[in-house]
Specification:
Radius of gyration: 14 Å
Strand content: 35-45%
Number of domains: 1
Organism: Paenimyroides marinum
CATH superfamily: START domain
Protein name: SRPBCC family protein
Helix content: 25-40%
Shape: globular
Number of helices: 3
CATH topology: Alpha-D-Glucose-1,6-Bisphosphate, Chain A, domain 4
Oligomer: single chain
């Protein structure tokens, strides 16, 4: 299952956004209002929970300076990645888009497609808060 957020333009440089997203604790600022839990495990891992959904632990997998950060599920039960792609348009203007890729059975994919789409759209929209 592959989903992508709308592209959002943020009035920050790609270097600034890359550094902000590299700091795991900043993801709390991006979370939807219905967040029930957010806990930083270490500098590369955090766990969050939204009301009515299971808690998810994300780990920073790879980072390409100023252009891409890839987070992945810490559990192999639900294998997925969340990739933030940064595209600097001007000195203080960067386009950001999130990509969700997961390997789920058709029933699970059908159940989570809506909530995950809304979740990554919220994360992208909240990039201006960084």
């Amino acid at each position: 299952m592959n989903l992508e957020s709308p592209k959002v333009t943020v009035s920050k440089s790609s270097a600034y956004l890359f550094e902000a997203l590299s700091d795991i604790k900043n993801f709390e600022k991006l979370m939807p209002e219905n967040i029930a839990k957010f806990e930083v495990i270490d500098e590369n891992c955090f766990e969050f929970g939204l009301k009515g959904m299971p808690e998810i632990k994300l780990v920073k997998k790879t980072a390409t300076p100023t252009s891409e950060i890839v987070l992945g599920a810490a559990s192999s039960k639900l294998p997925f990645t969340l990739t933030a792609k940064l595209d600097e348009k001007a000195a203080e203007e960067t386009a950001v888009q999130l990509f969700f890729e997961g390997d789920f059975n058709p029933m699970m994919a059908m159940m989570i497609k809506g909530p995950i789409s809304k979740f990554i759209e919220t994360l992208a929209t909240n990039m201006v808060k960084l």
